[in-house]
Design goal:
Blueprint: E1 3-6, H1 11-22, E2 28-31, H2 39-44, E3 52-54, E4 60-62, H3 64-74, H4 85-119, H5 127-150, H6 161-175, H7 185-195, H8 198-204, H9 215-221
Helix pairs in contact: 1-3, 1-6, 1-8, 4-5, 4-6, 5-7
Length: about 220
């Protein structure tokens, strides 16, 4: 059986999980606490990061975008990257935007401080970092609104990995109640479309032990 090593609210793990679901590929989840530096895990992935996909034949793949590109090549029936070079370039540009820029400016500052510090018993969140993440998210939500006013989806008229990457990051912030949706109606409408997809319902079911989701997140699932 295909196995995906992941961790709670890890946006890169969520990205691969949703891509697998969109392609109707079965898999098992294996929780991995990377800070434990398990010898068996490091033997498969010396980088020691997540996600990690192990195919049924033993093929091992790391890095969320490497995994997603592999899935596109091996399981092309559901196209998540684009039908011509320009579409594929735009999808990759936006995936990079959210996996690098959004992650650095928002996800790390909010999820890293509010969730991971708690799990690792590293003390209280760093207030200035959390405030920076909350300030930075407005710029990104404005950009999502700008794009989706002009397109059906982020990269154009087709649902793609760009939407998956953006929603994977935002869903982790949403779990903590730090997405100011009321100030970004257009971005919220796009996000509601993503939430209605069957593949996305699976990651919304995820719960972090001893760390309940925000009331707004719970309400979204009712």
């Amino acid at each position: 059986m295909r196995t995906l090593f992941h961790f709670w609210l890890n946006p890169f793990s969520r990205k691969v999980r949703m891509a697998l679901r969109e392609k109707n590929l079965s898999f098992e989840l294996e929780l991995e606490k990377t800070w434990e530096r398990r010898t068996e895990f490091l033997a498969m992935n010396p980088a020691g990061d997540l996600p990690l996909l192990v195919e049924s034949d033993g093929t091992i793949l790391s890095n969320s975008q490497v995994i997603c590109e592999y899935l596109e090549e091996v399981y092309p029936e559901t196209n998540l990257i684009g039908y011509d070079p320009v579409q594929r370039a735009e999808t990759r540009r936006l995936v990079n935007w959210f996996d690098r820029k959004f992650n650095r400016e928002v996800t790390d500052n909010i999820v890293g401080e509010k969730l991971m510090k708690s799990i690792l018993h590293l003390g209280d969140p760093h207030g200035p970092s959390v405030r920076a993440g909350r300030a930075n998210i407005h710029y990104h939500l404005d950009y999502i609104g700008f794009l989706t006013e002009r397109r059906e989806w982020l990269a154009g008229d087709f649902f793609s990995l760009a939407d998956i990457a953006a929603a994977s990051h935002l869903s982790t912030i949403d779990y903590l109640g730090d997405v100011p949706w009321e100030q970004h109606e257009i971005a919220h409408k796009w996000y509601e479309k993503i939430k209605s997809r069957t593949a996305f319902q699976y990651i919304f079911d995820e719960r972090v032990p001893n760390f309940a989701p925000s009331p707004s997140y719970e309400k979204a699932m009712s």
